[in-house]
Design a protein that fits this description.
Keywords: Membrane, Transmembrane, Transmembrane helix. This is Protein kinase domain-containing protein. The structure is a single chain. The N terminus and C terminus are likely disordered. The protein has 369 residues and is of the alpha+beta class. The longest helix has 20 residues. 34% of the residues lie in helices and 16% in strands. The protein has 2 domains: 83 residues; 176 residues, Transferase(Phosphotransferase) domain 1 (Transferase(Phosphotransferase), domain 1). The termini are far apart.
Length: 369
C-alpha cells in the first residue's frame, strides 16, 4: 500500500466491531448477510456493516478478504475513486477479537432507493436491476416506473462498463445477477452500484468466498467464476431485461432486433448459449459507450440494422405530434422531439430540399431548351 493511501485517513484493513457506532438497521437477513446495518466507523465516516451469517463466517477465507480491502487502498487516486463510485467494495474487515464478523462497505446513494410509492428515498426499498424486467402493466399496477428498452440498455451499459473495468484490474464479478446491483435514473443519466463485491473473484488467486449464485443465473457448464461466466450472465441480463422476464427460458430474436443491430443480437444469443464469439468483448465495449448516449432528456433512440440512431417509440403507439421533455414514469413514452442527430439511412432536411430544387431547375432548363 502506498504512503499516500495511508496518509489520506483511510480505514485500516481490519477494524473491531466494538469500535463501530450503530446508526440503524438497513435491511433484514439475506444471502451472505445476517443483517445490513448503518454505522459510524473510527474514521468518522458512515458505512454499511454487512454482518455475515454463521455459515459464511465459518468458511470465509480471511486472508483473501483482507487482500481485497488492501488492494483498494493500493490503487491510485483516480482508480480508487472509480472503484468507490461503481462498487460497494470491502473497505475494512470487521473482527470480534480474532474472529471475522463481516465487512464495511460504502452506502448506496439515496437515489437508488425508493419508498412504498416508487419515489426516491434514502434507506428504503432498493432499486435492483430486476426492476428493468418489470413489464409496463405490472409497473403501473405497483405504482413504479416503467423503463423503456433504451433506458434498460443505458443502465445495463453502466453494469457492463464496471464489469469490464474489473476484468482489466484482475477481478470477475462472479455472482452477477439482478439483486447484486442497484441503479438510479434521473430521466437522462443512469448510475449503477455493484453490491456484494466481497464475493468478487480474483482472476488469479484464491476467492474470499465459496462460489454461490441463484439457480436461474448459474452458467450451464462446470467452470469457476471468471470472465466467461461474467459475459454469459451479462448477456442474460440484457436478454431478460428486454424480454421483461427474469427467468426467460429462450431468446426472442425479433424483440431484441427491434432495439439493436443483428450482430449485437447474435453475440448476446451466442453468449447465452455458452459460446465464445471472438469479437464479443470488443463489441460489448463499444456498446458500453454507445447505449448511454441513446437516452436524452428529449427523446430515446435505438440502433438497428436500418439506422444507427433511430427514435424509439412503443410498438403500436401513435407518434406524438408535439415535442416535450422525456420524463420517466409508469406511463411515460418518449416524444418525437426534433433532433440534429441523423443516421446512415436518414437524409438531412436541408440536403433534401436542395436536391428537390436542383431537380426542378434541371427539368425547367430541359423544357425551355
Amino acid at each position: 500500500m502506498t504512503g499516500a493511501a495511508r496518509a489520506a485517513g483511510a480505514l485500516p484493513v481490519y477494524v473491531q466491531a466494538a469500535d463501530l457506532a450503530p446508526v440503524g438497521v438497513l435491511a433484514p437477513p439475506g444471502g451472505q448477510s445476517a443483517r445490513l446495518a448503518r454505522c459510524i466507523a473510527p474514521d468518522g465516516g458512515e458505512y454499511v456493516f454487512k454482518t455475515y451469517t454463521p455459515e459464511v463466517r465459518g468458511e470465509v477465507r480471511l486472508p483473501a478478504l483482507a487482500a481485497m480491502a488492501d488492494w483498494r487502498l493500493g490503487l491510485g487516486g483516480d482508480e480508487r475513486a472509480e472503484l468507490d463510485r461503481t462498487c460497494a467494495w470491502p473497505r475494512s474487515v470487521v473482527m470480534d477479537g480474532r474472529a471475522v464478523q463481516g465487512v464495511l462497505v460504502r452506502p448506496a446513494p439515496a437515489a437508488m432507493f425508493l419508498d412504498a410509492n416508487g419515489h426516491s428515498k434514502a434507506w428504503s426499498l432498493p432499486r435492483h436491476l430486476d426492476a428493468l424486467a418489470r413489464p409496463e402493466a405490472k409497473a403501473r399496477k405497483l405504482g413504479f416506473e416503467y423503463y423503456p428498452p433504451p433506458v434498460k440498455l443505458a443502465v445495463l451499459a453502466r453494469v457492463l462498463r464496471t464489469m469490464l473495468w474489473l476484468h482489466g484490474h484482475g477481478y470477475a464479478v462472479g455472482d452477477l445477477q439482478p439483486r447484486n446491483a442497484l441503479f438510479s435514473f434521473d430521466g437522462a443519466t443512469a448510475d449503477v452500484l455493484l453490491v456484494d463485491c466481497d464475493a468478487c473473484v480474483p482472476l488469479s488467486g484464491e476467492p474470499a468466498h465459496a462460489q454461490r449464485d441463484p439457480a436461474d443465473w448459474k452458467a450451464p457448464w462446470p467452470e469457476p467464476f471468471g470472465v466467461r461466466t461474467d459475459l454469459y450472465k451479462f448477456a442474460l441480463l440484457v436478454v431478460r431485461s428486454l424480454q421483461e422476464n427474469t427467468a426467460a427460458p429462450a431468446t426472442d430474436r425479433d424483440r431484441l432486433r427491434a432495439v439493436m443491430q443483428t450482430r449485437t443480437c447474435d453475440v448476446l444469443v451466442e453468449l447465452c448459449r455458452g459460446g465464445r464469439p471472438a469479437d464479443a468483448v470488443e463489441l460489448l465495449r463499444d456498446k458500453a459507450s454507445v447505449w448511454p448516449t441513446l437516452v436524452t432528456p428529449r427523446a430515446l433512440y435505438v440502433q438497428t440494422d436500418a439506422s444507427m440512431r433511430r427514435r424509439w417509440h412503443p410498438a403500436g403507439a401513435p407518434r406524438p405530434d408535439a415535442a416535450g421533455p422525456f420524463t420517466a414514469g409508469p406511463s411515460a413514452s418518449p416524444p418525437e422531439a426534433p433532433s440534429a442527430a441523423s443516421s446512415g439511412t436518414e437524409i438531412p432536411t436541408g440536403f433534401a430540399v436542395a436536391v428537390v430544387l436542383a431537380i426542378a431547375f434541371i427539368v425547367l432548363v430541359i423544357m425551355l431548351a
